[in-house]
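Lecture 7 notes: from sequence to structure.
We start with the chain below.
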Amino acid sequence: MTDVGEIRRLVDLNPWVTLVSQGEEGLVASHYAVMLDGERDDLTIVGHVGKPDDAILGLGEREMLVVVQGPHGYVTPRWYGDVPAVPTWNFVSAHLSGIPELLTPDENLRVLERLVDRFEGDGADARGLYTLPNEAAFVERLERGTVGFRLTPTRVTAKRKLSQNRSPEIVETIIDGLNAEGRDDLAREMRRAADARIRS
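Predicted structure tokens for the same chain:
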């Protein structure tokens, strides 16, 4: 998967990522929400980690791998018909690697505010970062316990394995099977990929 727009869509729809780095005692991993940098149209992401995860990950000093996991799931060979077949696992994922840039406290506050706004939504009862009873001093104290980062990846590996090697009829059977099992997210990704193949 090389289309920047498709990878941006993957990141936007799947903001809960795994951060991996080489620590002093081996590989270390943390899990945080990230989002696309609103001032860029590339694959730059912004986020934050809680202290001491910044030190454990070597944030700003060492290369970090961000694993973005999209919809995924088991595909039974029953859906292929009466032919020799084995099961598989369909998925969409991306790996973004690079050395993150540390954000200033003001930049970090803006990112934290954007993250909260995004996940709170715009309902009448949405509670923003600075919504009372939160006061600015309280929010700024919380910010000091986090470290914000911006990562413009120097290496990107994105993959979409959605039964592309199967006939359109089998793909439809798989989509129907996934929908019947309530795995609508993976079925939707397969539908998008199948429709794109038809248009191309």
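Points to note: The helical segments are 4-13, 53-57, 105-120, 136-143, 168-180, 184-199. The longest strand covers residues 64-75.
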